[in-house]
Design a protein that fits this description.
The protein is 37% helix and 24% strand. The chain is α+β, with helices and mostly antiparallel strands. The chain folds into five domains: 182 residues, no CATH class; 125 residues, Beta-Lactamase (2-Layer Sandwich), CATH 3.30.450.40; 121 residues, Beta-Lactamase (2-Layer Sandwich), CATH 3.30.450; 117 residues, PAS domain (Beta-Lactamase), CATH 3.30.450.20; 223 residues, PPM-type phosphatase domain (Phosphatase 2c, domain 1), CATH 3.60.40. Strands 5-4-3-8-7-6 form a six-stranded antiparallel β-sheet. It has a five-stranded antiparallel β-sheet with strand order 10-9-13-12-11, with helices on both faces. Strand 3 and strand 4 form a beta hairpin. Helix 1 packs across helix 5 and helix 4 packs antiparallel against helix 9. The longest helix has 40 residues. GO terms for molecular function: phosphatase activity; RNA binding.
Length: 828
């Protein structure tokens, strides 16, 4: 790598046009690997066999293609040389033959080829953006030995691409020339040139490096479709994609070209004619400014080509230039509109940069927000006539964008500001901006405040179902608005109904209220209101509220009555329905409270919060029941601790799913059933199996969890089983552990279920806790975390099992507001 910074791994010194490369001409296929061409033009395969017919044909085709490519390259080079000769003819005032001799002599003296010298001469004469891009390499080169070669090479490439583009008769040839001469040396592999339609659509005008089928699929992009070219068009700036697959926008070749990409708007004079899209096969690092300027120069070259080839290209107006002839149709169009319209022509400076728009024409309906006549506005620059257009409303930016992209712009209630003697006058208007050829048509409809308020009032009356009236008591004239005819169910051509006949169109039961309303209004001459049921001619009855006030003269005589009718039928029926709903809700709440009270009484009668101690030698038994805080959440938690005839102690806790009276009654059934089954002397596992049969077959869709144990005081052995319940907790000394999680389905889930059974030998001082999930369950914690907290709480040293249960209940973190049952036994 030389000391001069390079745009890509390719060395630009090796990319000067040579007789093997030409702008965008087909390179053709290569000779198959299995054959080679000898010096005599014949081919032979790898084994030295005589050349086949296919090999001879391939070699011939390849040789012809190289000749065609060299001829095209030479033609492009000759165009550049001829252009340099023309410059010499103009500068030296000599003949073409003398210019050719001068060019040859100067090239020999400078040690350059005629093509390289021709590029330098054209650059010196043009001094355009292509020249700047080429000279930038020389200015930034660190090695004097290489800067001349690299700068000359770039100048040749760019000027050759320009010559080929000017000589081409279509944009396809331009795209091929750009890729061959200017972009391939930068490492680019594909290029696409898009043209922008009047409706904002994109058409693929030229491409190189893409497959024919891929180009056919992307021939036309409708307006509004988000693509890479659309992004550059919308933002009106160059967009670089270091890795195009990460951009997330589609474009031509996005499934095959996985490297970097740049998209450049191609425009002249502030108007964008198309978009230049360049693809690289690898990811792009941040590019130096000289590469960016070179890409922008190529985009400007494409813009000139698109402007020349476009059927809509009408050029741009400059200060003092004659308007295009096609403006006559646009002027006629503006004059045929009923809204104020302005025809704007773009104004560009000497460098081709858009600076402003000139107001070429205003139609007869034109209304200036500042009140100026048409003559004071026509011929003036837009920013001079309306300097605030570049301020709060961004009107100038909208016009500039429409002119650049061709996409029309429409907005409602857009603020417009005009300056009159440095005083801002604000107005609101509906704005429409569209591009027609090289001109812009600006239409605005300034909103009339009185018309806006009248329209607002009309919509408010329609939405509120309000109809206004005024009745002249002297002449008898009555004025109704259109909404009042609708309320009465009358056609607009019908005669209005006077107030004195109001009772005849109302329900008979409302005649007293209407009479009181009329007396207050006409006799006492005070504002009045009343509600009545209007009986319309179509048989529909509407609930109406009327409000009116008298209009008096200076001598307090009644001149007129004005007021309004409002249809309150929806409100009336809503109030009726709301009253019925309140009554029904009160009745439902009363029934629910009664059911909850009965369930609570039943639960407390069967399971009091505490119970008397059980007389068992060597064993202390304590129970606690904590009901839910809300009476409406009466649950099905239950416990039992009873001495059986066999002197064994039955210990069990359970939880029926659900709340309310059904859960409470189901709890009573299961608890009593377990007591009766325990008398048989069966094991805990068998008891739970039988209890599952009761829950599944003898109750209505009841499911529950339970843990059951039989403790033998003589042997201190506890046999226990569980059915979907949390395991008991053993507190031995300063340690608390949960018993093994034996297998067992919850009660009532299936018709037949078997449970595992476990045995535990208790020692003196051991405490065993059985509990329901209301003791540990939390909404934001798992069951394992809640059980770990219970084990930590149960390790406390307590004088008795009663105090241990109180401590566990006090430090419980459960937040589900559920019932809680706890049984504790301690061996003494």
């Amino acid at each position: 790598m030389s000391t001069r910074e390079q745009p890509s791994p390719s060395d630009p010194d090796d990319d000067r046009p040579r007789p093997g490369k030409a702008a965008g001409r087909p390179r053709g296929g290569t000779v198959p690997p299995q054959s080679r061409t000898g010096e005599d033009g014949r081919t032979a395969d790898g084994d030295g066999d005589p050349p086949s017919s296919v090999g001879r044909l391939a070699a011939t085709v390849e040789r012809l293609r190289r000749q065609v490519t060299a001829a095209h390259a030479a033609a492009d080079g000759r165009a550049l040389v001829e252009l340099a000769k023309g410059v010499l003819v103009e500068r030296l005032k000599c003949s073409p033959a003398e210019a050719a001799r001068q060019l040859s002599a100067l090239a020999g003296q400078a040690g350059l080829s005629q093509l390289e010298l021709a590029a330098d001469i054209v650059n010196e004469a043009a001094r355009d953006r292509l020249t700047e891009a080429a000279c930038d390499f020389v200015e930034r080169a660190a090695s004097p030995a290489r800067e001349e070669v690299s700068g000359t090479s770039l100048a040749v490439r760019l000027r050759t691409a320009e010559s080929a583009s000017l000589a081409a008769d279509d944009t396809q040839a331009v795209a091929e020339s750009l890729l061959e001469h200017a972009l391939a040396p930068l490492g680019a592999t594909a290029v696409a040139v898009w043209t922008v339609g009047p409706d904002g659509s994109l058409t693929l005008a030229g491409h190189a490096g893409f497959a024919t089928g891929e180009a056919g699929r992307w021939r036309y992009v409708p307006p509004g479709v988000a693509t890479a070219a659309r992004q550059a068009l919308a933002e009106r700036r160059t967009v670089w994609f270091p890795s195009f697959p990460r951009a997330g926008v589609p474009s031509i070749g996005h499934q095959h070209t996985r490297g970097g990409r740049v998209v450049v708007p191609a425009g002249t004079g502030g108007r964008i004619h198309g978009v230049l899209e360049i693809c690289w096969p690898h990811a792009l690092a941040p590019q130096p400014p000289r590469i960016e300027r070179q890409v922008e120069a190529l985009a400007e070259l494409c813009a000139h080509t698109l402007e020349t080839c476009s059927p809509n290209g009408t050029g741009h107006a400059t200060a003092g230039s004659a308007p295009p002839s096609s403006l006559g149709e646009l002027v006629d169009l503006a004059d045929g509109l009923y809204d104020p319209a302005l025809v704007l022509l773009p104004c560009v400076d000497a460098e081709g940069v858009l600076t402003d728009f000139r107001i070429y024409h205003t139609n007869s309906c034109f209304v200036d927000p500042a009140g100026r006549p048409r003559s004071a506005v026509e011929g003036v620059l837009l920013l001079e006539a309306y300097p605030m257009a570049a301020g709060d409303s961004d009107l100038f930016e909208k016009v500039e964008r429409v002119h650049a992209t061709g996409e029309p712009f429409r907005a409602r209630r857009m603020p417009l500001t005009a300056l009159v003697d440095q005083v801002p006058l604000k107005a609101v208007a509906d704005v429409s901006i569209s591009r027609h050829g090289g001109s812009v048509l600006l239409i605005w409809r300034i909103e009339d405040e009185m018309a806006r308020l009248a329209s607002l009032l009309q919509h408010a009356q329609r939405l509120g179902r309000i109809g206004g009236f005024e009745e002249n008591t002297v002449t008898g004239d009555i004025t109704w608005n259109s909404q009042l005819f609708t309320l009465y169910g009358l056609p607009p051509a019908a005669a209005p109904i006077p107030l004195r006949e109001l009772a005849g169109h109302a329900h008979p039961d409302d005649s007293v209220a209407i009479g009181r309303f009329l007396r207050t209004l006409t006799h006492h001459r005070r504002p009045a209101s009343s509600s009545f049921r209007l009986q319309r001619p179509d048989g529909v009855t509407r609930h109406i509220r009327v409000v009116a006030e008298p209009v008096l003269d200076a001598e307090d005589r009644l001149l007129a009555v004005r007021g309004a009718y409002q249809d309150i039928s929806a409100q009336h029926w809503t109030e009726v329905a709301l009253a019925a709903t309140r009554d029904q809700l009160a009745h439902t709440e009363q029934q629910s409270a009664e059911r909850d009270r009965l369930a609570l009484q039943l639960q407390h009668a069967i399971m009091p919060p505490t119970r008397a101690p059980i007389d068992v030698p060597g064993l202390q038994v304590a129970v606690r029941y904590r009901p839910a805080e809300s009476d409406s959440l009466v649950g099905g938690d239950w416990y039992d601790a009873v001495v059986l005839p066999s002197r064994q102690v039955l210990l069990c806790v359970g939880d029926v799913a659900g709340h309310g009276i059904q859960a409470a009654t189901s709890m009573v059934v299961l608890r009593n059933a377990l007591r009766g089954l325990a008398v048989t002397g069966a094991s805990p596992a068998q008891l739970l199996s039988w209890l599952n049969t009761v829950a599944h077959h003898l109750t209505e869709h009841v499911t529950a969890t339970a843990v059951c144990g039989l403790y033998d005081p003589a042997t201190r052995v506890l046999r226990w089983a569980r059915a979907g319940h949390l395991p008991p907790v053993l507190v031995r000394g300063r340690q608390a552990t949960a018993l093994p999680l034996l297998g067992g389905l919850l009660l009532g889930a299936v018709g037949e279920a078997m449970c595992e059974e476990g045995e535990l030998l208790l020692r003196e001082g051991d405490v065993l806790l059985m509990y329901t999930d209301g003791l540990v369950e939390r909404r934001d914690r798992s069951v394992h975390e809640s059980l770990a907290h219970l084990l930590t709480t149960a390790r406390v040293s307590a004088p008795s099992v009663e105090q241990l249960l109180e401590h566990v209940l006090t430090h419980s973190r459960a937040d589900t507001d559920d019932d809680t049952c706890v049984i504790g036994i301690q061996v003494v």
